[in-house]
Specification:
The structure is a single chain. The chain is mainly α and 291 residues long. It has 2 domains: 83 residues, DNA polymerase, domain 1 (Orthogonal Bundle); 176 residues, hpI Integrase, Chain A (Orthogonal Bundle). 58% of the residues lie in helices and 3% in strands. A 3-stranded antiparallel beta sheet has the order 1-2-3, with no helix packed on it. A hairpin with a 4-residue loop joins strand 1 and strand 2. It is elongated. The C terminus is likely disordered. GO terms for molecular function: DNA binding; tyrosine-based site-specific recombinase activity. It comes from Caldicellulosiruptor changbaiensis. This is Tyrosine recombinase XerC.
Length: 291
């Protein structure tokens, strides 16, 4: 697996790749190498035909178009790296990714959100922290990586906003009274207990006093979804989808939602219009006497 380690170092040196992207590429390439091991082939002996065979194998095993499309991108980056290292001599990989169907994102209803947010106990260290994280995620629609990446200096409770920082541009996102109250309580009661190092800048901490991880927060969301009895395949990202859809349902301007979400292309934000329009149609059909 030395080649994977070298590939990881190569990706980390590329400033345009986020850590999430790097880890996604690595997962894809590890699966590809596992496939090569199963058929008894070395990387240096692979060709365009090998890659095509792998993609066909993914299709036969029922992988989604989005998974296959991502794998193709990962393989193109990987083979560029291999060619630069003179490990393979394959020309540009000419494989078009499958067309992706733009299905409406899955969301929680407003009642389900209320159930989820009411689950954390507000009389212990963990519950107060978890409540603050869930409230802030739903209040702002930020990505999980952005939530756990927040520092103390990125939040202004007095004026009701957070600063979400990334490499391309920072964005200021307003937060409502529920999130302000939850975060304020966390800062007053939970964080002082969790922060073993007074120099720690991270806003949300785990019980080791370190910055909360994606995996740690994923477990938190799954736990409270079970407690709330929400029978959906729930991930932290579903709160981002719910935030955007609920705003648009209540009349928010799509471009304003785009700015808060940090979407470069408005067509990405317009996916949430599909969900809102479906709901409006259902309301119309139930309420209109001649529907």
């Amino acid at each position: 697996m030395k080649i994977v380690e070298a590939f990881y170092e190569h990706l980390c040196q590329k400033q345009r790749f986020s850590q999430n992207t790097v880890m996604s590429y690595l997962r894809d390439i590890k699966k590809y190498i596992e496939f090569l091991d199963n058929i008894g082939m070395k990387i240096e002996d692979t060709s365009q035909a090998t890659i095509i065979t792998y993609i066909i194998n993914m299709q036969k095993s029922g992988k989604s178009n989005s998974t296959i499309a991502r794998a193709i991108v990962s393989l193109k980056v990987f083979y560029e790296f291999l060619k630069d290292r003179n490990i393979v001599d394959i020309g540009k990989i000419e494989i078009d990714p499958p067309k992706l169907e733009r299905t409406p994102p899955q969301i929680l209803t407003k009642d389900e959100v209320e159930k989820l947010l009411s689950c954390p106990r507000e009389d212990d260290i963990k519950g107060i922290r978890d409540k603050a994280m869930l409230e802030l995620l739903y209040a702002t629609g930020i990505r999980v990586s952005e939530l756990i990446g927040l520092n103390l200096s990125d939040i202004n409770l007095e004026h009701g906003y957070i600063i979400c920082r990334n490499k391309k541009r920072d964005r200021i996102i307003p937060i409502g009274s529920y999130a302000i109250e939850a975060v304020e309580k966390y800062l007053n009661y939970s964080r002082p207990y969790l922060a073993r190092n007074k120099e720690q800048e991270a806003l949300f901490l785990n019980f080791n006093g370190a910055r909360m991880t994606r995996q740690g927060f994923w477990k938190i969301v799954k736990f409270y979804a079970n407690v709330a009895g929400i029978n959906k395949e729930i991930t932290p990202h579903i709160l981002r989808h719910s935030f955007a859809t609920h705003l648009i349902e209540n009349g928010a301007d799509v471009r304003a939602v785009q700015q808060m979400l940090g979407h470069a292309d408005i067509s990405t934000t317009q996916r949430y219009l599909q969900v809102a329009n479906v709901k409006l149609k259902e309301v119309y059909q139930k309420a209109h006497p001649r529907a």
